[in-house]
Amino acid sequence: MKTKEIMEKKTTQQGITLIALVVTIVVLLILSGVTINSVLGDQGIFKTAKEAATRFNEAQQKEEQELANLMNALNDSLNDSGMIEEPWEGPSTIQEAIQQNVFFEETKEVKDDYGNSLTIPKGCKVTSDATKVPEGIVIEDEEQNQFVWIPVGIVKEDSTGSITSNIQLGRYIFDTSTGQASSIQYAYTQENPNNYLNTDGTVGLIENHFTELSINRQITAAIGKIANQNRNHNIISRATGWEDGNQGGGSEDGNYQVIGDDNTTAKNLPAFIESVKKYGGYYIGRYEVVGTESKIYSKAGAPMVNVSQLKAADLARNMYQNNGTVGLESDLVNSYAWDTATVFIQEMGNPNYANQVSINSTKTNTGGTGDKRCNIYDMASNVSEWTTEYSDAKIKAVYQDETVLQKNPCTYRGGSYEKDSNTVATRNHGDFANNSYDYIGFRIVAYIK
């Protein structure tokens, strides 16, 4: 009896275990099916999440598009009101610049018809006088001041680029017969990019002791006397010169007294040269300066004369002073600018212009003499022109019956209506910086800031 109960009990326990296992498996299968369906089915979690992500992205894109539309509408409104301007691109060729006839809003490089590059400064436009660098590209500011581009470097002279000239910024001498230029001193070279500047701020002297200074010279005060049988004269080294009002001043030199005053040197010769190196050229006044001491212009008209070198330099360098609308610096023309412009004129089909004698024998309006080369007027004609070039040449002179060595530190260049054998385009004579004459005017050199 007891054995039977035990067997029945074991049988009962084993049956319960199998049923529980089967039920568990069935339940798990049901749960798995439900889970799989809820995850992967048509209304499953994956599909629902995917649809939600799609709707989110669509909503985000719609929001971004609406925001972009709003910003565009706002920008259009501001542009119409003039509060926001589109970036200025401007012309890219000389032809486009002439056709558009616009003042450049920014300094920009353009190409001519031959592929030569040149830089048009902010605040200027290109006139219709020329479309090619060899002809002399002319720019004009809003006051109608006109300047001609002087290229430095390789200049293409035809559309194929097979005819070229290599123009270097430098101070030259010119053969008195042929006008052929010989280099005396380059402003810079690849081998020596700063050879224009000596340790004392000057550059070396060339023919006839003419030089170009990059810093203002200082005169040391000194008093000397010249004696003869009748009287003594005090000579004082100052801008006013002789005690009775004439120019003078200096130190002893042998048996003679050296008299002379100082000239105004270049505004900033290194800055001029660095600009030429960077932009590949500079601008020179198309005309001799016209106007008055209150306002000068580089345009056609009666040349401004009876002005000292000191005053001419002051007027020239202040032409664009504190003017942020024009991308130019201005100065009285220097020897590098004068000589290189002469080389440019000769290389562009005007041989021996260095020895050109003045066309006019009486003073007339600049631009009206007929002396025009590469759109530059009257470098050989009308009136000579003060420069920042300095000379330490001395000549014997007589003042009130007394012989002195007269020092003429200031240089003027070019021909004049006086029309003697020396009044040619490359003429360089010395004089006192405080003197003024009816036959000496001046010209502007302008370089890009």
List keywords for this structure.
449 residues; alpha+beta; 3 domains; 5-stranded mixed β-sheet; 6 helices; 27 strands
Work out the strand percent.
Answer: 25-35%
Specify the overall morphology: elongated
What proportion of the residues is helical, as a percent range? 25-40%
Beta strands, count: 27
Strand order of the largest sheet: 3-4-5-15-27-18
Whole-number count of domains: 3
> What would the average pLDDT be, to the nearest integer?
79
The unreliable regions are: 6-14, 197-201, 215-256
Please tell me how large the radius of gyration is. Answer: 42 Å
Largest sheet: 6 strands, antiparallel
Summed up, the helix count is 6
N-to-C span = 125 Å
Structural class: alpha+beta
Mind explaining what this structure looks like?
The protein has 449 residues and is α+β, with helices and mostly antiparallel strands. It folds into three domains: 2-81; 94-215 and 264-448, no CATH class; 223-259, no CATH class. It contains six helices and 27 strands. The chain has helices at residues 2-40, 45-81, 94-100, 269-279, 309-317, 335-347; strands at residues 108-111, 117-120, 124-126, 138-141, 146-151, 153-156, 164-167, 170-174, 181-186, 210-212, 223-227, 232-236, 252-253, 256-259, 281-285, 290-292, 295-297, 328-332, 372-373, 376-377, 384-391, 394-399, 402-407, 410-413, 428-431, 440-442, 444-448. A six-stranded antiparallel β-sheet has the order 3-4-5-15-27-18. Strands 10, 21, 24, 25 and 26 form a five-stranded mixed β-sheet that branches. A four-stranded mixed β-sheet has the order 13-14-23-22, with no helix packed on it. The N and C termini lie far apart (125 Å). The relative contact order is 0.12. Residues 6-14, 197-201 and 215-256 have low confidence and may be disordered.
